[in-house]
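A quick word before the example. In earlier lectures we treated sequence and structure as two separate objects. From today on, think of them as two lines of the same record. Here is ABC transporter domain-containing protein written that way.
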Amino acid sequence: MIADDIAVSVRDLGRVYRLYARPQDRLKHSLLWRFGRKYGCEFWALRNVSFDVRKGETFGIIGRNGAGKSTLLQIIAGILEPTVGQVIIRGRVASLLELGSGFNPEFTGRENILLNGAILGLSRAEVKERVEEIIAFADIGSFIDQPVKLYSSGMLMRLAFAVATHVEADVVVIDEVLAVGDVFFRQKCYQRLERLRQRKVTVLMASHAMTEVEQFCNRAILLDKGQVVFQGTASEAVKRYYLLEQLDRTPTLSEAVSPDHDTSAQQLSPGPPPWPTSKAFLDLSKVHQVSDGSAICTGVALTNSSGKPTRVFAQGEVAFFHSEFELLRDIEVPIGGVVIQNDKGIHVHGKNTLQYGSRVPRCVPRGSRLRFSQQITLALQPGEYTFEVGLATISGRVYDRLKDLTHQELRDHVFRLCHLSQVGPFRVTWRVEWDTTQLTHHGVADLPGECEVWFIPPSGSDLDKTNSDAECRGTTSVGERDKCRNRA
Ligand SMILES: Nc1ncnc2c1ncn2[C@@H]1O[C@H](COP(=O)(O)OP(=O)(O)OP(=O)(O)O)[C@@H](O)[C@H]1O
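And the structure line, produced from the sequence above:
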C-alpha cells in the first residue's frame, strides 16, 4: 500500500541488459542459455531505484548521458518491463518519450489525436472536446491532416507535447522533449507545464537542461550509472549534477598541450596558453559554417587556462576559445570574435579583437592561417552554453580612423568572412570552495563592480562621537573593514 498523497511509487527497480561482444553470441545465448551456457555479460541499466512522487509534484530526473533516465521513464510509462522491482501509479499516465513513439505514422495528426485519446481511456466525446484545443496548441497548420510520417521532428514534437498535456492525465511523463522546437514553442510549453502544475497534475521530466529543472521541478533524483545518488530538492540535485560533471573533465594535460606546438606561428599578444594539439579540437563536421568564400574555419578548441581541453568550467573560471581560419584570398585587417549564448539562445556575451584592442596584422595574404585565442572569464550563471566564432575584416584605411567612427558607421565597413554557430556546448558549474557551493551573484552574468557601505550611527550615540560617517565607509576589502572596526 502507498500513502494517499503519492502519485508514483517506484520500489527497488532494476533493468538488466545482456551485452554481447559479437553478434553471433546473441544467437548462441538465446539458443543455449536453457542448457546453462551463457554468452555475453549482464549490464544493469538501472539498479535499486526507489522513490516516491507526490500528487501534483513536478519531479525531475537528471543524470549524465547513459545514467538510466530514459530507461526509468519508459518503465514508468509502461513501455518497458523492469527486470526486478515495481512501479505503482495512481491514475492515468500520458507519456511523451521518444518523439512520435505514440503515433501511428500512417495516420494523420488529427487521427492520431483521436487514437491517443482512446488509448488513454478518454471517451469519444471527451476527445472531440479537446481536439481543436490540441490542434491550436500544436499550431502545425494544414499538416494536421497529413500522415505524421511526413512531419518534421519539430512538428512531431509539437503534436506529441500538445496531446500529452491536453488529455487530462493524472501523471505526465516527459523525456527531454523540450530540447526540440523553436524558442517560441518552448515558451508555450513552459506555460502549459505551469498550468498542469497549477491543476495539480503530477509531472515527471527527464532533462539535461538544468535551469529548467531548477525552475520547474519541486524535487528531483540524480541518477548515475543506473543508481540514485541523490534525491531531494531540485536545486540541490542540480548542484550535485554539476559536481558529477566536474569529475567528467576531458583529456589529460599531457594529451592536450603539445610540447612541440607550432612555433612558426607568430603570437601577436602575450598571455594565452600554447596553441592546443589536434586532439583538443572540436569535431566541426556537424557545425554549420557560413563563408563568403574568403576564408574557412579549420579548427576550434575550448581549453582552460592550463591549455587543457574541457567542456566544464567552474563559475568564474577562465576559458580560452581558440579558433583558426585559413584565408582563401588576401584580406586587410582581420577581426576575430566569439559570442556566447545560453540555453535559451540569448547572447550573454560577445567580443571581438577590435573591442579588445588586440594587436592585429595590417594585411594577411591568401594561404595564411589566422589563429585567435580569446580569454574569457566565465562569470556566468551555472548552466549550459554554446558559442559562435567568426572572422571578419575591415580595410586598413577604416582601421586607422576607428576612433572617429560611430558604431553604425563601423558596422557598415565590416565584412563578415566566415562564421560558425552553435559550437560547443560547454557547461558552467557552481564554484565549490571548502566543500561549499559558492553563489557569487544572482542572474545570468556577474558584472564587475564594487559595493561601498556607509554606516551612519544614530545621532547623539557614542559611536557618533567617535566616528565620522565618511571614515566608516566600508569597501569589500577586509583591511578597510578592520580599520573601521578599530576606530569604532
Ligand atoms: N536495449 C539496450 N540494450 C543494451 N543497453 C541498453 C539498451 N537500452 C539502454 N541501454 C543502456 O542503458 C544505459 C541507460 O540508458 P538510458 O537511455 O536510460 O540513459 P539516459 O540517462 O536516458 O541517457 P541519455 O541522457 O544519453 O539519453 C546506457 O548505458 C545504455 O547504453
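Notice the following. Residues 17, 43, 45, 63, 65-71 surround adenosine-5'-triphosphate (CB under 6 Å). We will return to this example when we discuss secondary structure assignment.
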